[in-house]
Structure formats: C-alpha cells, structure tokens
Amino acid sequence: MTLYELAPTPSARRVNIFLAELGVSVDRVNVDIRGGENLTDEFKAISINGRIPVLKLDDGQTLCESVAICRYFDELLKPVNSLFGNSPIEKANVEMWQRICELQGLFIGFQAFRNITKIYEDRENCIEAWGEESKQRLIDFLPTLETQLSQHEYIAGNTFSIADITAYVMVSFIQHLDITPAPDQLHLQRWQQQIEQRVAVQSVNAGTNT
Amino acid sequence: MTLYELAPTPSARRVNIFLAELGVSVDRVNVDIRGGENLTDEFKAISINGRIPVLKLDDGQTLCESVAICRYFDELLKPVNSLFGNSPIEKANVEMWQRICELQGLFIGFQAFRNITKIYEDRENCIEAWGEESKQRLIDFLPTLETQLSQHEYIAGNTFSIADITAYVMVSFIQHLDITPAPDQLHLQRWQQQIEQRVAVQSVNAGTNT
C-alpha cells in the first residue's frame, strides 16, 4: 500500500496521527500540491476528489478522504480499542463529535485560510469576506470544546478517539489564522498539552513516523 | 426514543430515509427552526450543535448530527446489509463517497442557500458572494457524480448506501437554487428516478413514514 500525501498539511496529519496510534507503517509518496501536481490527469485518475491524502491498495484500488482511509485501517485491523468507538452509543458519540469538530471546526478553518490568504487563487475564486466570517465562526466555536473538555477528559468522552485527532489538527492549524485558545480556556489548553504528549502525536510532529 | 426534527429539512430527510430503509419507527417532535425554537436554552441543552435532528435516548442521553444518528441505529440493529457497507473496503468506499457528497455537495448547498437567500440573517452574517461561489461549485461538482453513475449503479458502487441518501437529498435540495442535472447528465437522472422509486424514499417524500 502507498499513501500519497503532503506530510505538513492538516489532512495528511489526521491520517498520519491515526496510523501512528495504530502502529501502522505504509510507503509514502509526497505530492507537490502548491506546484499543482494534484491538478494533473495522472493524479486525478487516482484521487476522485483531486486531493491528498490518497491510499493506493495493492490491487490498484484507491481511497481518498482522510476519514475513509482511517476507517479502512480500523476495519482491517479491528483494534481492541477502536478510535471510532466500540459500543453503538460510543460509536455514535464519536461520529457526532468528529462531525462537529470537522463541520464547525476544521472545514471552516480551511475555508477561512484559503479565502483570506488566497493561497490557491490560481485555481479557485476567493471571497475574502467569507474568509473573515469563517475566522469569526471558528473563534465562536472554541467555547463548545472548552465546555466539553471541562466535563470530560477527551473530546468524545473519557476515551481518546478520532474526534481528538480532528480537533487537535484543527487547533494546531488555526494558529496560522492567529487563533489560539483564550487565556481562560484552561481545559482546552490542558487537553492540547495532553494530546501533544502522546507518542504517536510526537512522532508525527517530529516527522519521525513511518 | 424521540427524534426532534423538522421533517422537510434536508438533514431530517437524511435521517428519515435511513430509518425508513431500516424499518425503524420513532416518536417525533417538530422543532420550529424558522421561529428560532432551536435557539432556546432548553433546546441547546439537548443539542450540542444547536441544530436538528436530535435523537433523545430513553436514558436521556442525546445525539445530534444526522450521520451519527444513522450510525447509532446501524450499530444497534446490525442489519445484514448495512447502508454503511460490510467489508473493510466497502465501508471505506461508502465513507469516501458519503464525505465527497457531503463536503463538496450538501454542505456547500447549505452555504449557497443560506448566504443567497439570507433566510437566517437574524442569527448569522450572510456573504452573498460566497453563496454565489458555492452555487457555482455545486454545478461544477455534478459531473463527478455523473461519471461515477455512468460506471456504477449507485454512488458508492453496486449497492445502495448512505452515500445515495446524502446525494439524493442534496440533488433534491439544490432545486431551490435552480440547479438540476443538465440534459446530458443522463446517468444522474436515471439514478435520481431509481432512488425516487424506493419504498422508503416514497414514504418520506409523501410524509407517510413513521
């Protein structure tokens, strides 16, 4: 199996932290997104959404979308403690928080970043006012995490899950928009430090993951 | 169990088609979103994202996010043919298409609709230029579905899945933005008619689902 990625991007980081948590090694190929390597017909043939990361299986089948790649490994390896949860209510709760952190967090962060910095204006229309509005919505979203983390150790409850990975990658990424937890968001800060101490997260942050 | 919803909304339709496909009946309570009933402290106490649908379990626990509610029932009932897929690669493939249809389809449709119509300008800033940009991105996304449906009977392959529900709700919803499949998108039209003939979909469209 080969993972096509660009290691420092948030979507690649999500997959890489997940794989490091599971102790999975894969071959990796870097794709030059800024240079437009993902816009070629060759890349589009392996990635339906035209984005990284993409996992190419040994039979040639390909999977894009970071959470789909994580779910593939989870279902293949069936770890005793799944990062997607175990019982029906746990799985639903992880899915809920994973979606909240993505749809009100990471995805809005992408829209803020792309529309404010216009980093990809060679390939998309940028609406700066939407970037600024998205940035404000992100700031307004952080208290939801603070409240949850004041009542639970992790994002989806008392167990580390994929929702923590999504939220952690989001909180790291929005530093590029000059957004950090407010001084009084102490539970969010406690959680962020705790996630950063995980061996898997440290290996991805140091680039020593395999 | 009680489902708090507003039946004609796309998110409620996703859950309702899923439940009808599984043959699940639940008690239902309508929430007046337009009137701001979801903005009350009482509603926020049961819905973390402040939105419908929300499922209240018999023990008082609540779940929001439509896909999380669907996954709860899927995991609880474990149907022989899961709408989330069965084998690891099937599950990953369904997750991939579900996310593509949501992140490039339904979610962008919501942003287009809310920012163009300004239906909720009493509670959010609307950026009309982003609404128009989102509308164009939706139009540009439909060929991805047309290509997939020219090669497969359903969105995620040869089996009906939750990705079809998301895509069908999206294609129905974007009619409000005057977007319909183009005359030459014959596979998309064929698929749409096929989905509309399903008993579960007909019951939800007619409002006769339980």
Number of domains of chain A: 2
The CATH class of the largest domain in chain A is Mainly Alpha
Into which percent range does the helicity of residues of chain A fall?
Answer: 55-70%
- Write the CATH architecture name of the largest domain in chain A: Up-down Bundle
Describe this structure in words.
- With about 210 residues, the first copy, chain A, is of the alpha+beta class.
- Chain A folds into two domains: about 1-80, Glutaredoxin (3-Layer(aba) Sandwich), CATH 3.40.30.10; about 90-200, Glutathione S-transferase Yfyf (Class Pi), Chain A, domain 2 (Up-down Bundle).
- Chain A has helices at about 10-20, 40-45, 65-75, 90-115, 130-150, 160-175, 185-195, 200-205, and strands at about 1-5, 25-30, 55, 60-65.
- Chain A has a four-stranded mixed beta sheet with strand order 2-1-3-4, covered by helices on one side.
- In chain A, helix 1 (about 10-20) packs antiparallel against helix 6 and helix 4 (about 90-115) packs antiparallel against helix 5.
- Chain A is globular and about 50 Å long.
- The two termini of chain A are about 15 Å apart.
- Chains A and B meet through helix 3, helix 4 and helix 5 of A and helix 3, helix 4 and helix 5 of B.
Key terms for this structure?
homodimer, 210 residues, alpha+beta, Glutaredoxin, Glutathione S-transferase Yfyf (Class Pi), Chain A, domain 2, 4-stranded mixed sheet, 8 helices
Annotate the secondary structure layout:
2 copies of one chain form a homodimer.
Chain A: E1 2-5, H1 10-22, E2 27-30, H2 41-46, E3 54-56, E4 62-64, H3 66-77, H4 88-117, H5 128-151, H6 162-173, H7 186-196, H8 199-206
Parallel strand pairs in A: 1-2
Antiparallel strand pairs in A: 1-3, 3-4
